[in-house]
Amino acid sequence: MHMIDLLSRMNYMLMQGNMEKEVSAVVYDSRKIQPGCIFVCMPGAVTDGHIYAKDAIEAGASALVISHELDFTPPADTTILFVENPRLALAELSAAWFGHPAEKLTTIGVTGTKGKTTTTYMIRSMLESAGLSTGLIGTIEVICGDKHIPAVNTTPESWLVQKYFADMVEAGNKYVVMEVSSQAMKLDRVSGFTFDYGIFTNLEEDHIGPGEHADMAEYIACKGKLFRQCRVGLANAEADYLSEVMAEHTCSLETFGMGENADLRAVNVHRIHQSGYLGVEYDLQGLEQYHVKVDIPGDFTVYNSLAAIALCRHLGISQDAICKALNTIQVKGRLEIIPTPGDYTLMIDYAHNAMSLEALLHNLRAYGPQRIICLFGCGGNRAKSRRYEMGEVSSRLADLTVVTSDNPRNEEPMDIIADILVGVQKADGKYVTIPDRKEAIRFCMEQGRAGDVIVLAGKGHEDYQEIRGIKHHMDERELIADIIAGR
Q1: By CB distance 3.0 to 4.6 Å, which of 98, 178, 354, 452 could disulfide with 166?
Q2: Same-domain status, 286 and 416
Q3: Which is nearest to 394 in space by CA: 350, 354, 365, 445?
Q4: Tens digit of each residue's pLDDT (9 = 90 or more) over 54-89
Q5: Is the dihedral of CA 189, 190, 191, 193 positive or negative?
Q6: Which domain covers residue 88, as residue numbers?
Q7: DSSP code of 216?
Q8: How far is CA 378 from CA 135, 338, 466, in A?
């Protein structure tokens, strides 16, 4: 691509060289330099791309994008472009490199502390039910046409976002729904285009600390950026910090919720608890009026489904397509109910910190189970405080806590379990420790009685156990199948 065309929508200052040249690639990883490429020197959490500028030129890069002075004098024929924000520059360059693919798609971004994954899958299911080919980018995977690509980050780097968009256009997708993390907004991973729709699910005090956000003010500000970068905003009317998140929004705004002030409302909410099944149903009021049943339990399911319905209303999706999708929706590792021969309900969920586990157990308790049996572990080489907190929450809210192993990494599983038990013993719940996760699951299933809810927390969609730097295949669904089959 000609450099002038690549830079047509960017703000930059030409420091040296010329722009009458062809660019072979846009690169931000110095290990992937190729002759004739433009290399974006990005500061990162661990290193700074400016350090590798000289190596990039020696490897064939014909242009550099920089944000501060270099510690060497580059050759005169190297084009040097100065920008204030290299991450924004990468997003804009990537969008141009792939032909601005977002402009050929209807783009839907979902942000919030919780609910992003489930809401994106609900939306995709509704659109696909209506015959609309839809891509997805999120925590679990990227879906592009018929391809399912395991995800590394909730929201990938901007170059990869644009590549996925281009691949989706090529595959015939007309829509894309994606999770937009606060880190993605902070690091400009979704810059370089305007979302058609932005959705705000909720916001709680999370993701504050080293490597994430300095404080709540920054966290809120990053969430709010989406609503200065979308045309239509849809927000949870009952979410904490709603006014702060939307303080500077530039989009048109609608709300959903359970209160009278919401534009789209859920009323007459009823929890469904049958053998091996938990769900929820309600009536819509406001912008839509019909009955809804969702095959996922919990109050947060009401909000997630309202968000999806509010979005699909704008796209003209029929009531039949919406209800069909919600009647069959299941999201891997998000309150995922696994059929068993027993009279209890067995589910897998990704809750892996105290806040998410507490919300999960409170929502399950509202269904009036005979007992809640909660199995979980905690990851190695992570904050010990999480272990104490999760232990206390489970002991306080579950009838039986089963403490097991979960990604011990470079720690001894029993040392992690000992930390969890410090928290467990702060409350008065019954507990057992079974380090082998398969045996722990077997124990839970053998203990299950009619009306019980058994939740396997922490792994969710993950299909591995990380031990000493090696990821060993381990899928809880397969373990359950083995146990049922007597293997």
Answers
A1: 98
A2: no
A3: 354
A4: 999 999 999 999 999 999 999 999 999 999 999 999
A5: positive
A6: 3-97
A7: H
A8: 32, 22, 12
